[in-house]
Amino acid sequence: MKAIVKHRGERIDRIARATLGTEGSKATEALLAANPGLSERMVKALDSNIPAGTAVDVPSDFAPPDPAGIVLAWE
User: Fold this and answer.
1) What would the pLDDT profile of 54-73 be if each residue is shown by its tens digit?
2) What is the DSSP letter of 72?
3) Rounded CA gap, 42 and 49, in Å?
4) What was the pLDDT predicted at 65?
5) How far apart are CA 10 and CA 28, in angstroms?
6) Is residue 56 within 8 Å of residue 16, measured between CB atoms?
7) Relative to the CA of 14, which of 6, 29, 39, 69 has its CA 20 to 30 Å away?
8) In the 8-state DSSP scheme, what is residue 67?
9) Predicted confidence band at 35 (pLDDT cuts at 50, 70, 90)?
10) How far apart are CA 20 and CA 5, in angstroms?
11) Is the separation of the CB atoms in 10 and 47 below 8 Å?
């Protein structure tokens, strides 16, 4: 699956949350690994955001953690 960055200034963690269900659990790392050169494009944008119009490959083999196995501090 591909995600297209529509707005200038989209962050990799927001794309991970929208496409993979989490920005944690190595989701951002999985996106960066599936998109060689993406981190360099983010650096060239001078604000660590992904430029508009960038196509981001979403890894199909990533599985977010089971939310039933997560214990919140207030539970």
Assistant:
1) 888 999 888 876 666 666 67
2) -
3) 5
4) 67
5) 13
6) no
7) 69
8) G
9) very high
10) 15
11) no
